Amino acid sequence: MVKFSKQLDMQLVPEWRGAYCQYKLLKKDLKLITFNWHLMPECPVAPSNPPFTLTRRKSPWSSVDVIKVHCQQPENTDLPLYHTELLAPVAPAAYLKRFFSRLDAELNKVNTFYKTKEEEFLQRGLLLDKQMFALIEVKNLLKHDHSHSSAGQSDDNSDCRRNSSSKLSTDPKDSVTQTAMLCAPSTMRSYRNETVGNAETRKDLKGSHVRLNIPHVSATATLSTLSQMLWEDVLRQAKKSATFYGGKVDIVLSQRKVQRAENMLRAAFVEFYRGLGFLKNYSSLNMVACAKILKKYDKITGMLVSGKYMYHVENSYMGASRKIVELMDKVEAIFTEHFAQENRRHAMSALRPMQQKASHTVTFLFGLFSGCSLALLTSFGILLKVAGDYNTATKDNYLRSIFPTFGMLVLIVLHIFMYGWNVYSWRLKGINYAFIFEFSPGSELRYREVFLVCTCLTTMVFGAMVMHLSMLSTLLKWQSHYVDLFPFMIILAFLVVLFNPLNMWYRSSRWFLLKVLLRIVSAPLYKVVLVDFFLADQLTSQVPMLRNMEFVLCYYCGGYYRSRDHEACTSSRNVYMAWTYIIALLPYWLRFWQCVRRCMDEEDYTHLANGAKYLSAMTAVALKIAYGRQKSQASLALFVIASTIATAYQLYWDLVIDWGLLVRKSANPWLRDQLVLDHKWIYFLSMVLNAILRLAWLQSLTQFQIGSPQMDTYITDFVFACLEIIRRGHWNFYRLENEHLNNVGHYRAIKTVPLPFEELNPMA
């Protein structure tokens, strides 16, 4: 049976951890009472039973009032504060007072937090109530404009539009957002069973104007806005348009815009319901925690006080309030009626998505593929040793043409492996990575699934390496050039797995990855969220893989594998080097435009400083490539200066901004106030390790090589590429730790979903 302390850790909301009842601290207070129970005096009322017992017999303290719970009402708040007074002369009284003092403080804390969050959700619910009412009126208006069934109503609406010309907002921001001024018709539609749309809401909205505000989160929306800004002075007469004679812009009220508004409101209701569920679960867990700890107290001391204290807990604001439950019922009714076509089953599946169940099959396959990977890697090492006597030309061809292909695949697999360790570490330390990345509830890959994907792909790669080397060895006497197609076939297998449209191999996660990659490539046309720039940062660590991809595409698509001419791609020096610059600088360039887009959306110029960091990195990478192409004193000096500036810039941003460390006057000097890891020295070691790995570019100066000179620089470049991926995986943990602690500091447990309608104050 799982202990309640572990059950509490598993079920609590990570971002609200500090607001929960500190059950473990209360258990420590009980242990102090247990260690001093021999100091317990005789009961003031002489009983016939022994003065102290841990058995189920009636306790001598059952007939004595040991405590009295006072409910005090402060002047500055409407929440009562609870204070427990010990009545009986009990020793050790100091430990008992300490226990009840902490218990009272925890009860007052959870009551205050519950009421604060409840008020926030009630305000959000009122806002969603108005949004829902506005959506229904907009849909009715659109339906009426399409049908033209009533000429009188049409005239009324036309008059309404003409009268609203003076109410058109002149805010400059309106020129970069899709807006539509809507005037509600005279006939109002009420909600079914009055679940929403109360009299107050209808009174607030009747006769008022709302703006349909669709944020530009996609490339299509951004491009359409730009085209509208360019052609709004030319195209005045558009189909299905509402012309404001006093304004300067034609506003198009289309079915697509209304549908997008409905989708936005649907997502807002789902997230709102999720937050209500969190608060309801918060109340239940704290109630159970109080009951459990008081039961332990009764068992240890023999004083039956749980019934009296729990009476006050159950009648406290947290235990007596039913507003959240009633609000959840209303949301379920609204969602079923307006977003699920009266199908309650579909509505509840959207509001309460099923969580993934742990599968023994995943664990079994993970172990199976892990064993296969180790066996194939061992076989590859043996074959490499046995086939070590084949001619030098074959060795040179393998390193220059085949090794980049397998190296590219190994770098991808290594990055997946590091992400699996990240997920395992985040879950172990209670970092809510699924919320930070905005994964759909129940669809995120847990560390077992990530490791399963990693080991499966590793088995494919190592199997191809063993098969290819076996055919190249003198043992099999295989000299066909078609052997070199094996690495390319593995690449095709990777692509088939990634783009497979069938509902298998974690399709939702693969689709999510492809959508994020599309948003990265289309920067700055898409609104940038955390998962976008997080994955873009991963791509900046995969520059060696991208450069290998450039060679692989040239080698195989150009047909040079038939003659095993690995110099054919590099012989056209100018074209190949031009593409080398483009591919090496592309991840930094995309990341720079993401920073520009975030600066435009959030109006925070810190993002421009972050973009300058990537520009400095681009300069350093470009000069490094130029120095490798033509070694001269001038190029060396420029390369060293640019790399030094970029490294210092990146180290400062890593440690201070991304990790939130090096805060001198904090609770943990030179770290930060809150830490997830228990040992502080790990943070200092991580900072030093990150700095050392950031200095990997010094290898270009020292000409350090791994292996024999015949291996050229391929093995060395591969090793340093692996070290960069390891550094990125190490960086990932602390980056999300800092983001999680920021969410915890603001008790931010649900994402903020933008709402489609903005209410405007009607003019007299």
Automatic annotation (TrEMBL):
The chain crosses the membrane at residues 362-382, 402-421, 450-473, 485-504, 516-536, 574-590, 634-652, 681-698. Residues 2-311 form the SPX domain. InterPro entries: EXS_C (IPR004342), PHO1 (IPR052486), SPX_dom (IPR004331). It comes from the Eukaryota. Residues 146-176 are annotated as: Disordered. It is a multi-pass membrane protein. Keywords: Membrane, Transmembrane, Transmembrane helix. The keyword Transcription regulation does not apply. It is found in: Membrane. Residues 571-764 form the EXS domain. Belongs to the SYG1 (TC 2.A.94) family. This is Phosphate transporter PHO1.
